[in-house]
Specification:
The complex is a heterodimer of chains A (430) and B (207).
Chain A lengths: L7 H5 L7 H6 L4 H9 L2 H11 L11 H6 L9 E6 L8 H8 L1 H15 L3 E6 L4 H16 L4 E4 L4 E9 L9 H8 L23 E5 H5 L1 H7 L1 H5 L9 E8 L5 E6 L4 H8 L9 E5 L10 H4 L6 H6 L8 E6 L4 H15 L5 H18 L7 H12 L15 H15 L1 H10 L5
Chain B lengths: L6 H13 L7 H12 L4 H11 L3 H8 L13 E6 L2 H5 L2 H12 L12 E6 L11 E3 L2 E3 L4 H14 L6 H8 L14 E2 L12 E2 L4
Parallel strand pairs in B: 1-2
Antiparallel strand pairs in B: 1-3, 3-4, 5-6
Helix pairs in contact in B: 1-2, 2-3, 3-4, 6-7
Classes of the chains: A alpha/beta (430), B alpha+beta (207).
Chain lengths: 430, 207
Amino acid sequence: MTTSILLERMIAHPSDSHTMARYLDTGGYATLKKALKKMKPEDVTAEVKASNIRGRGGASFPTGVKWGFLPPDTRPRYLVVNGDESEPGTFKDRMLLERDPHQLVEGIIISAYALDVHHAFVYIRGEYPKPARRLQRAVEEAYEAGYLGGDILGTGFDLDVTVHLGGGAYICGEETALLSSLEGRRGEPRIKPPFPAVEGLYAKPTIVNNVETISNVPWIVANGGAAYAAIGPETSSGTRVMSLSGHVKNPGDYEIVAGMSWKDLIYDVGGGIRDDNKLKAWIPGGASAPWFVPGEHLNTPVTIDDIARNGSMIGSGAVIVMDETTNVVGAAHRLVRFFSHESCGQCTPCREGTTWMERVLARILDGYGRPEDIGLLLDVSDNISPGLAWPPAMTTICPLGPSATAPVVSIMKYFRDEVEAMIEGGASNG
Amino acid sequence: MISHWSHDSQLKAHELLETYPEKRSAVMPLLYLAAKEHGHVTEDAMREVAELTGLTAAQVQSVASFYTMYRREPVGKYVVSVCTSISCYLRGADEVLAAIEDEAGVLDGETTPDGKITVEHVECAGACGGAPAVNVNWELIEGVEPDKARELIKWLRDAEPSVIFGDEMQLLFGGQQSFDWGPKEHQGAIAPLPAFDPYGTAKGERT
């Protein structure tokens, strides 16, 4: 349970874990030398595949499989690291960028070597200037040390890395929207297929991986994919950084091995509920995920597949905890308002549906709810995502709209009596 | 057309155009640079970015209008952004926003008549472990309580700092943080824009 891969350096050396000096002093860039000088690109790819690591951005897609989708003969290829971290509840990439940027840079160089990429981009959300400054400094240090640029370590391998700042749009965390944005366009998602691995940045084969995913690559290549795969359950291998927020006593980023129960995560890792209140519900994987409740889920395991089997998703690893004092309509309204604000507007079910759901929830909160509002909210949800199942059916290009139905369906499933009471109470709630 | 830009910004603009495989990709960083030159993203700014990238002004405007951080109207010297998304909401962000509105004497989305302070609520700032979170010119303060939020507004109004340092504000007005931030940061924001060196909006040093 205490295996530490990603956070080891920043925990041991809080004052300077972000510097080149400390990174080198703790074994940094040794794996880069091993990879570039002693391994073939396909050997590196084989280790990543063997690690069974699944993407940490939200979709949990196996990274090695994604890499395998690159068409063999098309060049140039690009690697784009997704640091647009904007899913409410998530603040892990912020920490990885600020506290250990060289770990990411080394991961980028090794991955680029494996993928035959010569220009990599890191797209960081615009609201993160400090993480971007730290990463930019690390990139500059890597150029100065000869780990980036031309003829890296005398091996003939060339790589440039560009740090790119976003403009404040959640949707750019969706990989095709991110690529549109990086091309200097509106951040609108594209229809898949073609997937970015085949047709991505500038219509060239492109791998888009999350900051945390790529930060794992140095460890995987240093220790072997099999060693990584041996940590935790088979289909949730390795460690992952969970962001705990809301009504826990100790919010923060914690590196865990999958398989512990939610009870362990919330009460041991998170320290329990503030003021020793009762736990009411929690969101297991960021704002987009359907909620869990103590009566059904507290003793279920925290793994990618168990969460999916129970009707939700691990997403970006963001756990948002709500205690007994939480007004569930207020919480759902806040979540839906987010999606309504962040909808790119391309698809009518999402653009109109999120807007109207926000208004109906606001009406209930203001004390003007109508008895038919419950059916109306579910009907709008069903028009965005027919069947209201999870993973959601899609009427839209990307999953943003369907994600907005998760809080609505969750409160109707677990707290319908509270919603009804608010509607009946009318203006006395306002 | 960008000849009236500072020499430094002109050099940076040309570097940015060389950085990307296609010029168009420089639109977003160039919009930040242009905003720095004009104070916000004016019509002239968008025309200049269009000229630099070989796009039409309409194409640049379609990009600028998509993102929340390209301000096409003037904003205050300090943009105070209160996160009111779910994790901050659960920890009392609405009360923080109300205290800030009251102290500044303007409502969400407005700027004080003296042009010093713009108040706004924002969607998730990515500091959920340090809720409620407030940004000033995109430099972060975490664990902000309503009374400290009032002090922040007074400080901005009275001290009028020329550079906004996150560490300094955290010490003066902050509380619970998402994680230990480690060493002091020596760069801060000199404008209501993200303080990121390559676009020329950061400044050091204060220890």
